[in-house]
TrEMBL record:
One MF annotation (Gene Ontology) recorded for this entry: ATP hydrolysis activity
InterPro entries documented for this protein: AAA+_ATPase (IPR003593), ABC1_TM_dom (IPR011527), ABC1_TM_sf (IPR036640), ABC_transporter-like_ATP-bd (IPR003439), ABC_transporter-like_CS (IPR017871), P-loop_NTPase (IPR027417), Type_1_exporter (IPR039421)
Protein name (record): Putative multidrug export ATP-binding/permease protein
Top-level taxon of the source organism: Bacteria
GO CC annotation terms, alphabetical: plasma membrane
Record-annotated membrane-spanning stretches: 21-42, 54-75, 134-153, 159-178, 243-264, 270-288
Domain ABC transmembrane type-1: 22-293
Higher taxonomy: Bacteria, Pseudomonadati, Bacteroidota, Bacteroidia, Bacteroidales
A Pfam family hit: ABC_membrane
Main location: membrane
SMART domains: AAA
Subcellular location: Cell membrane
Length: 573
């Protein structure tokens, strides 16, 4: 769904409220006309108590109708607006569920959150406030124009004369300024939002390394940039509005000048002149107000484009479910790069056999995690083929793929809910006994039982905090419950203390029985018994073999083992 389609749908959400605006506008104009009639009757000495009572009653009735219809219209407009917000947010959420996981690696959480919250919220402002006001303002301008032609066509033309110039300046010049300033403002808003989220998330690290002054100054600079762009945006709005106001008020002066000339040289009554002058003032204000909505429409277009950047993404293909003849994972001449940068993988050829333990080792940036991402279908190779059994990963639907593969990452995310529910995410409908059995195999059962409410303990509630190793074991329990044939461990013990590492290794042993295990290794001592070790360097597979063979025949692997031994034997002297 593109931005134009979104805007079309948005505008159609509140079409019913336009009738309320129409009635309200007629009531407002009727009140004005009755007031002018009263002035005319006084000026011509034709006023009578009956006429005054009639006009007064008419004004009261029209004002009451305006108030009642206005209140109902506002209620209907807001109901439609909040209904539209709900529909759009639900549509975005439903679409996000269908997108390939690589999409979420390209987009920062702060950016997506800002679109779902801030940009969608602008739609409520448009539907509940801007759109009804646009309709009302247009009606007022059209009705005034008709009335002016009835009064005198020459004064009507004088009133309309400045409109083309004001509209031309607005469209040709000021719209470009507004679009540019709004883009800068939106960018600074997004950057400030993302930096604020990051700052709050890493405050412990900032304080630990005494960098709060530097990081705080950087954040303050970002906030000041936001303030500067906000001020520039408002200047970009106010300055053009001032110019347009001068042009439109020139039309009022023209009506006054021509009207006085008509009074002097022709039979043109003072009452008609006063009415024409009042209407020209009201017309100028209506046109100014209407032209001011151009900025709101530009903002709406920008928000719709941001929403379309999500809803316009192609969902992951929903291929039919087919049984796999094998769960061997094959990389056949695979080349891949992120965003056309330097190749992350280059001509990779490797096979991970079913039921084997495989390790991938190499320096940071060598392509280890990229291999995991391609197996999981987060990204598709630029060249070559990644297959599971006889099927290309790109032709396996996401539901089936996640049913084949589980991953335990270096930092496992736990939801702010009970421990049982966190483990139960592994398989929908799992019973309590199955959850407990998975926790026992993950070597986390005893710890859970020691917590205040056992498996019903809510993580983070009442001061319940878990260490990194404890979180990892809960994540492993989740994977055990899921029971997939392929398991990927992405440096799952890289930042864990020895006690937790020992327990996690026990859990991994339980986890990997009868499975295809792919370990992205940090500690080489933990993968010496692997059936196959893949050594990577700068995106290339430079050696494949077992531990002893690689120590003898692969200089890079031998160097890595030596460095690991030196690290393990290091002590403070």
């Amino acid at each position: 769904m593109n931005g134009k389609t979104i805007i079309k749908e948005i505008k159609s959400k509140n079409s019913a409220s336009n009738s309320y605006v129409f009635v309200q506008t007629l009531a407002a104009i009727g009140t004005t006309l009755l007031t002018v009639l009263l002035i005319y009757l006084y000026g011509t000495h034709k006023i009578t108590p009956e006429k005054m009572l009639f006009i007064g009653a008419g004004v009261v009735l029209l004002q009451a109708a305006k108030a009642i219809v206005g209140a109902v219209g506002i209620w209907r407009a807001h109901r439609a607006a909040y209904g539209a917000l709900t529909d759009i947010r639900l549509s975005i959420i439903q679409h996000l569920k269908k997108l390939p996981l690589g999409f979420f690696q390209r987009r920062r959480p702060g950016e997506l959150s800002d679109i779902i919250h801030h940009d969608v919220e602008q739609i409520e402002l448009y539907l509940a406030h801007t759109q009804p006001e646009i309709v009302g303002t247009m009606l007022i301008a059209l009705l005034i124009t008709g009335a002016m032609f009835i009064i005198d066509w020459r004064l009507a033309l004088c009133m309309l004369a400045p409109v083309p110039l004001a509209a031309g300046l607005l469209i040709l010049l000021f719209t470009k300024i507004w679009t540019k300033r709004l883009k800068q403002y939106n960018q600074s808003t997004k950057e400030m939002s993302e930096d604020l989220m990051e700052y709050v998330a890493v405050i412990p690290t900032i304080k630990a390394f005494s960098t709060e002054e530097h990081k705080t100054e950087a954040l303050i600079t970002r906030v000041k940039d936001y303030t500067k762009n906000s001020a520039q945006q408002m200047l970009g709005i106010s300055a053009p509005n001032g110019v347009v106001q001068m042009i439109m008020e020139a039309g009022v002066l023209l009506v006054a000048f021509v009207g006085m000339e008509l009074i002097v040289h022709q039979d043109f009554g003072i009452t008609r002149f006063i009415l024409a002058l009042m209407l020209s003032l009201a017309f100028a204000q209506a046109v100014l107000k209407f032209m001011g909505y151009e900025h709101a429409l530009i903002l709406l277009n920008r928000c719709a484009a941001n929403i379309a950047s999500i809803t316009g993404e192609s969902p992951a293909p929903d291929y039919p479910t087919k049984p796999l003849v094998s769960s061997d994972i094959t990389f056949d001449h695979v080349t891949f790069s992120y965003d056309e940068r330097e190749q992350a993988l280059h001509d990779v050829n490797v096979v991970f056999k079913r039921g084997t333990v495989n390790a991938i080792v190499g320096a940071s940036g060598s392509g280890k995690s990229t291999i995991a991402n391609l197996i999981l279908g987060f990204w598709l190779p630029g060249a070559g083929r990644v297959s599971i059994g006889d099927r290309d990963v790109s032709t396996i639907n996401e539901r089936d793929l996640t049913g084949l593969i589980s991953i335990v990452q270096q930092e496992s995310f736990l939801f702010n809910t009970s421990i049982a529910e966190n483990i139960g995410i592994g398989r929908a409908g799992a019973g309590r006994e199955e959850i407990i059995e998975a926790a026992k195999k993950a070597c986390i059962h005893d710890l859970i039982e020691s917590l205040p409410n056992g498996y019903d303990t809510v993580i983070g509630e009442g001061g319940v905090k878990l260490s990194g190793g404890e979180k990892q074991r809960i994540a492993i329990a989740r994977v055990l419950l899921k029971n997939t044939p392929v398991i990927i461990l992405d440096e799952a013990t890289a930042a864990i203390d020895p006690y937790n590492e020992h327990l996690i290794q026990q859990a991994i042993t339980n986890l990997s029985r009868g499975k295809t295990l792919i370990v992205i290794a940090h500690h080489l001592s933990s993968i010496t018994g692997a059936n196959q070790i893949v050594v990577m360097d700068k995106g290339k597979v430079i050696a494949v073999g077992k531990h002893d063979d690689l120590r003898e025949n692969c200089p890079l692997y031998a160097e890595m083992v030596q460095m690991q031994n030196e690290v393990d034997s290091w002590n403070i002297k």
